[in-house]
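Exam revision sheet. Question 4 asks you to relate a sequence to its structure. Input first:
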Amino acid sequence: MSLWLDSLSREDPVALVHSSHLALTRLLRTHRGKPIRRLWIDHPYGEEEITLLEEELIPAMEQFLARIQEIDAALEAAHEAEIERVQAAMATEALAAA
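Answer key, structure tokens:
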């Protein structure tokens, strides 16, 4: 793993999954019909393994990333609601003090 990926995975593992998804999608698109060489095994990924990646791994990664987006959106909405609540309380206090 490169130093950049190692650093990224420690800081934001979701970004690593996103980066991996983009890289794998690009790899599958550009190696259409050709075996994909793997560094740690002697046999490259052939048609059967590539099909598994396309039909199982890519959709699983996409589901993971979609769920992360939902969680992030909920966190952002809760944060915005808290900011609005605090600002409303501050405005009410300012009016009461005036």
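Marking note for examiners. The mean pLDDT is 88.
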